[in-house]
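Continuing the batch. This is chain 6 of the set; chains 1 through 5 are on the previous pages. Same settings as before, nothing changed between runs. Recording input and output for traceability.
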Amino acid sequence: MTLLLAVTCAVAVGNIYFPQAIIPLVAAGLHASPDEASLAVTATQAGYTGGMFLLVPLGDRLPHRSFLVTLLALTGLGLLAAGCAPSLPFLLVASALIGITTVAAQVVGPLAAGLVAADRRGAVIGTLLSGSIGGMLLARAFSGWLGEGLGWRVPYLATAVLTLLLAGILALTVPVATPPSRQPYPALLAESLRLLRTEPDLRRSCFYQAMVFAGFSAVWTCLGLLLGGPVYGMGAQAVGLLALVGGATMLCTPLAGRLVDRHGPDPVNLVCILAVLVSAAVLAAGAWGGVPGLTALVVGTLLLDIAMQSGMVANQARVYALRPDARSRLNTAYMTCAYLGGSAGSWLGVRVYGQAGWRGVCALVALLAALAIARHLVALSMSSSPSRRGSANSPSSGGTSGITTSEITTSEITTSEITTSGITATPTPSQNRGA
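Output for chain 6:
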């Protein structure tokens, strides 16, 4: 089942990224400019953001098996429509539909996190993320290879068949699970927004990932333009092959998960954001061209991939620990913010590339990483301040030393709770629900 869930993540996430490798082919096939064709990537990511906000909260409300099968079936139909698109506007609409429905990985994550102990949650998240990374990397290489040899429509059609096949397998194998919530749909949507307002750790996790993912999307959206341009003069296959180099990330995310379990998410976050900043400097050398430039692109994209995905493990471990009864809603808020950042990064990256070239894109990545580092340092300074440490024992933080005599009333103490050895505590109904 773990393998099947990882494959589900791989297919769902791969549907978002494989168009990045065939942007020049789409532009030539539909008689559009590369900037116009890149809107297919932006439409997919924007649709994915909308799907996370509108559909992922239903993971707390609907049975997971039927929900996952329905999502994958709709995604397969969207891929078929995109592969048969007669014009760019039609492709953009189909791409948005693909993005909205290919959110299966965001349903699988909260499901799996609830099945393991807290001290193993980071490792499980890292394993599932390895599947997502494998799908992302193989999808780029797969689409670049197929598109170069058979045309840009074939990757869409082949992926449609794969997605529909997986939907059939899940319908037969995923066990039926009771959803944790009976709240109506409008309440589920409102809860995601409320959690953003009330959970500071959720907000900062969202900010970290939005900044890093914006830089990541800007790099990979513009990489096809750089490699296909006059500096390198390569085809779509080059982007796919370069993406395969990031396969090492699949080995790093489980390690990052174990580090999160051992040391907590904050140190892992700091190292990952610093690595993004270093990757921006390395990637800037890709503008040189030739062997030195290509080497810089290989090293820089690998470092960026590892940093982004390992930071995702840390952020999700922090987020899932906040409210065990609302993990899908927490994940909705988190991933919506992350992909808003990614969509903005794709759009902004293409514009920066047109005005300032590849080095301008790298400067954008560095700026975004610097903003994330500044926010993280503020969070670390606040958590280490004496007043913040002291609040851990305050009544509002749940510390036992914050209970005063005035908070214990005679109506709360029953005869059965008074024993010869002292007074025992009985959990309240709300505490039982939280447990």
